[in-house]
Design brief:
8-stranded mixed sheet; carbohydrate binding; alpha+beta; 8 strands; signal; 23% helix; Mannose-Binding Protein A, Chain A; lectin; 152 residues; single chain
């Protein structure tokens, strides 16, 4: 074996060790897709129960990573933002306002009081607002050493 191959193997093993078993590593976070379906609030609580939160997607690179991760999955997926306090003012559950968006065409539309953010399969997992009481799959996110704050 070459030194380069051994070094690459160690780096790959180390990056996988940064996240718990079953979680996927990207940049400074670990992500877990949950196949169970819950409403937005219950999904956020389920993530908090494993020392995580619904995924917060502040960059194009992160949305592309999640879109690729979901490419073999089915259904729509909750991620961690709402505009339920002030309509049209989207905030991540951590309280941060959006500085990056990935809305599907003609979204968000607030059709029938839609205040929670999903990655919408029909639109190649671009963002869509939906009613918070609808049960969906969800994506949890946490830092390498569970350093992301748990909100709520």
């Amino acid at each position: 074996m070459t030194v380069g191959f051994i070094l690459l193997s160690v780096i790959i093993a180390f990056s996988h060790a940064l996240c718990p078993n079953g979680w996927r590593h990207f940049q400074d976070s670990c992500f877990l897709t949950k196949q169970e379906t819950l409403n937005w609030n219950d999904a956020q609580h389920a993530c908090q129960g494993i020392n995580a939160r619904l995924a917060e997607v502040q960059t194009h690179a992160k949305v592309e990573f999640l879109r690729n991760m979901l490419s073999k999955e089915d259904g729509d997926w909750w991620i961690g933002a709402k505009d339920d306090v002030t309509e049209g003012q989207w905030r991540w559950a951590s309280g941060e306002l959006f500085d990056y968006t990935d809305w599907a065409p003609n979204e968000p539309n607030n059709d029938h009081d839609q205040d929670c953010l999903q990655m919408f399969k029909t639109d190649q997992y671009h963002w869509d607002d939906d009613r918070c009481d609808v049960a969906k799959h969800f994506i949890c996110e946490k830092g390498f050493n569970s350093t992301l704050p748990v909100i709520g």
